[in-house]
Write a structure and sequence with these properties.
The structure holds two protein chains of two kinds.
Chain A (H helix, E strand, L loop, with lengths): L2 H31 E2 L2 E2 L2 H8 L1 H34 E2 L3 H7 L8 H12 L4 H8 L17 H25 L3 H9 L4 H29 L3 H5 L6 H8 L8 H26 L15 E2 L2 H18 L1 H11 E3 L8 E2 L2 H8 L3 H32 L5 H9 L6 H11 L17 H26 L2 H9 L4 H12 L1 H17 L2 H6 L8 H9 L5 H27 L9
Parallel strand pairs in A: 3-4
Antiparallel strand pairs in A: 1-2, 5-6
Helix pairs in contact in A: 1-12, 1-16, 1-17, 1-18, 2-12, 3-7, 3-9, 3-11, 3-13, 4-13, 5-7, 5-14, 7-9, 8-9, 9-12, 11-12, 14-25, 15-25, 16-17, 16-19, 16-22, 16-24, 19-22, 20-21, 22-25, 24-25
Chain B lengths: L3 E10 L2 E11 L4 E5 L6 H9 L6 E6 L2 E2 L10 E4 L11 H11 L4 H14 L15 H13 L5 E5 L7 H17 L3 E6 L2 H7 L2 E6 L2 E6 L1 H6 L4 H6 L4 E11 L2 E6 L2 E7 L11 E6 L15 E10 L3 E8 L2 E8 L12 E3 L6 E4 L2
Parallel strand pairs in B: 3-8, 3-9, 6-7, 7-8, 13-19
Antiparallel strand pairs in B: 1-2, 1-4, 4-5, 9-10, 11-12, 11-14, 12-13, 14-19, 15-16, 15-18, 16-17
The chains are: A mainly alpha, B alpha+beta.
Chain lengths: ~575, ~350
Amino acid sequence: MKRGPALLITFIVCALFAAFFIYPAGMVVKQAFEGPKGFTLEFFAAVFRNPIYREGLWNSFALGAASTLAALAIAFPLALVGHRYDFIGKPALGVLVLAPMILPPFVGAVGIKQMLGVNGAFNAALIEAGWMDATAPYDWLAEGRFVGIVLMIALNLYPILYMNIAAALSNLDPAMEQAAENLGCPPWKRFFRITLPLAMPGVFAGASIVFIWAFTELGVPLVFDYGRTASVQIFDGLKGLDKNPIPYALTSVLLIVAASVFAISKIVIGRSPLGTAPRPKGRSNSLKLRGIRSLACASLFLGVFLLATIPHIGVVMLSLAERWYGTVVPDQFTARHYIEALGNGLVVPSIQNSLLYAGCATIVALLIGLGVAWVVVRSDLKIRGFLDAVVMLPLAVPGLVMAFGYLALSQDGKPFHFLVGPGGSPFLLLVIAYAIRRLPYVVRSAVAGLQQSNPTLEEAAKSLGATPFRTLRRVGIPLIGANLAAGCILAFAFAMLEVSDSLILAQQAQHFPITKAIYTLLSTLGNGTELAAALGVWAMVFLSTAIMGAAILGGKRGGLFKV
Amino acid sequence: MESIRAASVVKSFGTVRALDEISVDILPGELFFLLGASGCGKTTLLRCIAGLETPTSGSIYFGDRDVTKLAPHKREAAMVFQSYALWPHLTVGQNIAFGLEERKVPRAEIKRRVEEALEMVQLPGFGDRSIDQMSGGQQQRVSLARALVVKPKCLLLDEPLSNLDAQLRVEMRREIRRIVKENGLTGIYVTHDQEEALAMADRMAVLTRGKIGQIGTPEEIYRTPRSAYVAHFIGETNIIEGTAIETRDRFALVSTAAGPIAGRITADDWTPVPGENVRLSIRPEAWRLHKEVGDNPVSGRIVERSYLGQRIQYWIETPIGRQQVVEMNPHVIHEPGDEQITLHSRHDDVVIIKP
């Protein structure tokens, strides 16, 4: 790649990031430290002096740590079994365990409440079977709801860890394990001495994303009505944004913790000698299982799938229920909510809005991501490593922080106010926010594709008289088309599911994206919950189609979530 | 048909000088070889000519046109890659048609020329196959057809035969030479295989560490190497240390541990003065074993032999070191032993080079 265009792309991307990423995040931090007389630590100290905020921060941290550990406990055995063994139905089961990703976690929270709540389906089943006293049903989600939130988040996010670990394991040269075997190392010892240390980068990469996600999760605590987390406290503090510096300080704390976790995981991954190892070409050494052992592996995957789809089943049943309280399945089924949803003033526009916002954001992310990937892989610029690191930063910054910064900067008279469209339309704001936050997925998949495609294929086109642009169009892009499509579909799916930006930046009902519409419906009296569930089912259908497409196009499911 | 000229081309990668002031003149219609060990800069030079690398300094000319800064797609220099670089998302026919489409050739003509190209490389009717259905040798020919179909002014080949098995390689040598000559192309061919170069080249350049060791016809390079490196790289040779006694015309008499040996001086710019240290290069087949009398006698004894069918190879211990000797079509086979034998070589076959 020529220097000129490479420098131009680098410059444009850095400028965009400075304006729409560094600036809003920096603004939040600045507000947190700026008193009437310049720099102050007073607000910061105030946050830690206030026992309510202290408890909120602690709860958020505990939520993040517990959810990450729980997700790891689910994901690691799955990834390891999938790596080691060939069993019955493995290809299909490998895709099925990714199912949780098709439901926004806070919608899933509605479903899980229906299933595991005091008057939920599970208790009803136990009572019917005579295993539980009908007058003293057990609260599975626990009084503090903390366990329920952890369970919900872990069940929703373990696929990210699973994909990261699976990718790390499949990137291992099978010869490394075979060499250990050959030198007389028994399988269990081989796991601790070879496999686990080599898979650690994948574990850390996935765990840091899951932690940051869970640590700043807004939707699930809101639905569980669990107000004592920092994210909900910030959300509640939005109303008095002009005068109150506390939300800024609280947001800054989240940012600092998240960024530190990201930096630590980067250092750990960076230390690993695997960073530069080429992709192995050796034959995989997964063992073909037969009979009962094959079924055991399959049922592990199936069990996780069933557990993970409890919320989904809850949502689907709720959307079809005439009335559902204290029974295993609803007394009566009806399609009424779907029909009614179509007539609801929120539902149809919100689907249109989400498709528009997420679609445009994906196109923007694709254009930027493709340019960045090309510079990173095919140019010899010294700063390409820096560029690569910069575009991954959105993974380190909680969506809540960004949403908060955008909101503050788009107020009347502030620099981003011009982005607010006529009638308060958040179109541009959301497209930019979604695009920047989902850019890492597009960049990673494009980079992976380019690294695997041989540069001589492009050189051959040039030597046969194709201009650089034509070379890109006829050879470069088609060769990495599958990777690009996979990255785009993920970016699109996550943009459709986005919670914090959507909840905070969309303010008028006619501009609501799906997630905000669902959230609003949930707090509507009457059959609002059922309508929300119906809309949630629509979203599931959209996203499962999209993600299935990504899984098929992406081939091996690894790589997409690598940090 | 176009001449290609590199003038003082330098290419640095960081602190490494891959090409160090290289100048070559390639004549129109010539099949020119760049030969050298891996890492000598031969592929870098080819890529500079193709426009895939930009020289750090120096210029490249196609005819009278300075193309140093010209983008690769404007050079009309089609390249055949070592890995073939066939596009897996296109069929054989689409791969070949690519260059014609970029040149906006009418559809009907593209179809005709693709078929002609497939026939030329002896793959008629393979147009609809996908690339992964083709064997290595077939892929190599598709890649050649793809480069030739655009009727380039010059054809650049980067070790095109290195992935083929021995027999196919020999077959393809003649094939490539025939196609280059029939189409009147100027061809530049990179290889590390000396036999390939000797068999196919009109002229060749031996590169070493980013510099040109020698340029000449295969015969000149083999018969008249100007340095020990070139003598070693092309064919095998015995190198002997000595001191010049006297020089006359382009011949010199050299004193060695086994007595005086006479030979030819090959460098244009150097003549040893009496007393100067020099080196002698004598090819294994230049030593004769059976002549009772002859020039340059050296005595020794056989320490090892190896029988190779059409020829036999001896290692003979002499005062000037262990000499490798090859005899073609041998009818007497000597066994290693203490028996003294005498080697002779013609003055013409001994090359005197600067140490």
